């Protein structure tokens, strides 16, 4: 898809638009595809899904700063309001579509204010830690705070988080279920 | 986020004061009991500022976030 065609599609849509960047060779895209089809079917007429083959749309990738796939962008009123990188489960996709439809913030995502506050704090802590000593505790604290600012974009965390959650779910007592 | 009860200015203030207290505590400027108190209060202020939730506000049913 060309940039002009993409912009026309986004601006002319009266309903929110979800844009998914995928590629035929991308395993997470293939895994997510059935859930995405099902969820977009549930939101038929309320949220529009546009699938873009990343291999054939290099200009768009550069313009929209798409670094990895699958990446989903959420547009409302022609404005980019949500961005999600990596494969998502069916329930997560459903929450995402619902939030976009209702004009709410992206579920589970950090707001830019939180991200900048945490990132800035980590930098200041690191600078203070280096100038005093250096202080190992302050540097460790800076590392933890920095991770909390970027964890939802960290590929290692994203790969490990579902497995850790599954581990806890398996061990949870029946009473909770 | 529903759980947050601190306004933006409140969070920034907590983070800044927390960093100063931690710097004083870990930097060796204050030692002994005062240093320990600075470290604990600094950590609490930093965490509550970064998370945006203050348990004391919650208990007192007070909030700076409108």
Could you describe the 3D structure shown?
The complex is a heterodimer of chains A (about 180) and B (about 70). Chain A has two domains: about 5-100, Glutaredoxin, CATH 3.40.30; about 110-170, no CATH class. Helices cover about 55% and strands about 15% of the residues of chain A. Chain A is built from seven helices and four strands; from the N terminus they run αβαβαββαααα. Chain A has helices at about 5-10, 25-40, 60-65, 90-100, 110-130, 135-150, 155-170, and strands at about 15-20, 50-55, 70-75, 80-85. In chain A, a hairpin with a 2-residue loop joins β3 and β4 (about 80-85). By secondary structure, chain B is mostly helical. Chain B has one domain. In chain B, α1 packs antiparallel against α2 (about 30-50). The interface of A and B includes residues 125, 138 and 145 of A.
How many individual domains of chain B? 1
Structural class from helices and strands of chain B?
mainly alpha
Global shape of chain B:
elongated
The CATH topology of the largest domain in chain A corresponds to: Glutaredoxin
Shape of chain A: globular
Portion in strands of chain A: 5-15%
The CATH C-level class name of the largest domain in chain A: Alpha Beta
Biggest sheet record of chain B: none
The termini of chain A sit apart by: 46 Å
Low-confidence stretches of chain B: none
Layout of secondary structure:
The complex is a heterodimer of chains A (177) and B (66).
Chain A lengths: L2 H10 L4 E6 L4 H16 L5 E6 L4 H7 L6 E6 L2 E7 L4 H13 L9 H20 L4 H15 L4 H17 L6
Parallel strand pairs in A: 1-2
Antiparallel strand pairs in A: 1-3, 3-4
Chain B lengths: L7 H19 L5 H20 L3 H5 L7
């Amino acid at each position: 898809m060309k940039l002009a065609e993409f912009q026309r599609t986004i601006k002319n849509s009266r309903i929110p638009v979800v844009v998914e960047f995928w590629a035929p060779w991308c395993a997470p895209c293939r895994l997510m595809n059935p859930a995405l089809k099902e969820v977009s079917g549930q939101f038929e007429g309320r949220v529009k899904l546009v699938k873009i083959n990343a291999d054939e749309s290099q200009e768009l990738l550069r313009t929209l700063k798409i670094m990895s796939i699958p990446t989903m962008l959420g547009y409302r009123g022609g404005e980019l309001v949500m961005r999600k990188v990596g494969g998502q489960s069916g329930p997560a996709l459903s929450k995402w579509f619902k939030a976009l439809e209702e004009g709410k913030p992206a579920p589970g995502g950090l707001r830019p204010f939180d991200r900048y506050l945490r990132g800035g704090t980590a930098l200041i802590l690191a600078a203070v830690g280096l100038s005093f000593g250096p202080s190992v505790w302050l540097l460790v604290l800076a590392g933890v705070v920095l991770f909390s600012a970027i964890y939802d974009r960290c590929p290692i965390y994203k790969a490990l988080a579902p497995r850790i959650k599954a581990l806890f779910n398996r061990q949870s007592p029946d009473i909770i279920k | 986020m529903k759980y947050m009860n601190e306004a933006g200015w409140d969070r920034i203030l907590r983070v800044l004061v927390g960093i100063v207290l931690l710097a004083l505590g870990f930097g060796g400027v204050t030692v002994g009991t005062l240093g320990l108190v600075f470290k604990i209060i600094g950590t609490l202020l930093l965490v509550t500022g970064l998370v945006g939730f203050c348990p004391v506000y919650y208990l007192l049913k007070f909030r700076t976030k409108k």
